[in-house]
Write a structure and sequence with these properties.
Layout: H1 4-12, H2 25-36, H3 49-64, H4 67-70, H5 75-92, H6 94-99, H7 103-115, H8 119-137, H9 145-150, H10 162-181, H11 189-202, H12 208-230, H13 239-258, H14 263-268, H15 274-279, H16 281-286, H17 301-313, H18 318-333, H19 345-366
Length: 377
């Protein structure tokens, strides 16, 4: 039987602006009527039969709106309409909204945001979907599409975002090869899953932001590459590239802080600077270095680029070169965006690989004790 809200949407489809149906009073009223039939409280057993039945009903309601079908070529419209739908439900009855299983709209919001190249939004909503699914499915979370997404698992076919997962996985593996070519040791997918994702989902919730930041940092390189190809380096804004690289450097610092080697330092000093973290024997030896790394001593972003090239010419090993680079990027872009020239494509690519290499190095070397097998990986 068709829901009231779905019938309103269908009635508007013959109009030139079908999305206007979602902004109509009829739709809002019908959606409120649909919501009234759902429980006002979550089931006592979040994985029991009542919870599963309520979640299935919610999935049916959201799928009946057919937003990804009606607006398949317009991800930005999908985002607006999903958010509009959820806002109506929230404003109608906050208790029922809280109890309602929202895995489906959050998952498709993640996909639409990915397609719109709004990767932070994409990973936010994908993590929201995962939280909903984890509450419902518990230890089976990695078999649910949202879990497959954050684990970059493109093997199961039963996932609407499979192509996007495969694209992200290919990007992960492609840059792993770039790191190998540069002399580093990339992180494997199994290591990424077992040392970071599984642990973040099942044991340490503060790592959830690290997981989503890692993925959004990785995915954002594609549009940034395109921008530099279409508008080569020169005068003009470098904001997108400075902020992207800065994000990667903060992610590296976050990994140091939350590692077992970094936790005692943070406990004694809640705001340790990167130099203090890298001066810790447990950290620099954990990263595979014989001594604490030295900074590049670069005061401008242009000097950072030059000295990174000098390090490469001097044969500085990749791991040390990557850490020196990410440290310098953190200090320059974290305090100033007003640099006269943006990097060119080759410089940006090298900086991205060095920052990503330092991130993978930290996960590989400092998170070995976090190993957590889930579903065989």
């Amino acid at each position: 039987m068709e829901s009231s809200s779905a019938s309103v949407i269908r009635s508007f489809l013959g109009r030139s602006k079908a999305e206007l149906a979602f902004y109509s009073d009829q739709f809002a009223e019908a959606l409120a009527e649909d919501l009234s039939g759902f429980p006002a409280k979550t089931a006592a057993d979040p994985t029991g039969g009542d919870a599963l039945t309520a979640a299935a009903r919610a999935d049916t309601l959201f799928n009946s709106l057919r937003i990804p079908v009606y607006f398949d070529a317009a991800p930005s419209i999908q985002i607006r309409l999903w958010e509009r739908t959820l806002k109506i439900l929230l404003d109608t009855d906050r208790a029922r909204y809280a109890a309602l299983h929202k895995g489906t709209p959050f998952y498709f919001l993640g996909i639409a945001s990915y397609l719109a190249e709004d990767f932070e939004r994409a990973m936010f909503y994908m993590d929201c979907a995962l939280e909903q699914d984890y509450r419902l499915h518990g230890p089976r979370w990695y078999r649910i599409p949202s879990g497959m997404f954050v684990r970059l698992d493109d093997i199961p076919e039963a996932q609407a975002g499979r192509v996007l997962v495969r694209n992200a996985k290919n990007l992960f593996e492609s840059f792993g090869k770039s790191i190998t070519t540069a002399g580093g040791a990339p992180m494997s997918l199994d290591e990424y899953r077992a040392r970071l994702v599984n642990h973040g989902i099942e044991r340490n919730s503060e790592l959830r932001s690290v997981v989503t930041a890692f993925l959004s940092y990785l995915l954002e390189v594609t549009p940034r590459r395109t921008q530099l190809q279409l508008a080569p380096a020169g005068s003009g804004t470098g904001e997108p590239f400075f902020l992207h690289l800065f994000k990667g450097s903060v992610l590296f610092e976050s990994l140091l802080r939350t590692s077992l080697a970094g936790q005692p330092i943070v406990a004694s000093d809640p705001k340790p600077i990167l130099k203090k973290l890298l001066s810790s024997r447990d950290i620099f030896q954990g990263l595979g270095l014989n001594r604490a790394p030295q900074g590049l001593g670069a005061s401008t972003f242009g000097n950072v680029v030059k000295r990174i090239k000098d390090d490469a010419a001097a044969g500085v090993p990749f791991n040390e070169r990557a850490i020196r680079a990410v440290w310098a990027v953190r200090n320059t872009t974290g305090h100033n965006l007003a640099w006269p020239l943006r990097p060119d494509s080759a410089e940006y690519e090298e900086l991205f690989v060095l920052v990503l290499g330092s991130i993978m190095l930290a996960i590989n070397n400092l998170y070995q004790d976090h190993m957590l097998e889930t579903g065989g990986a």
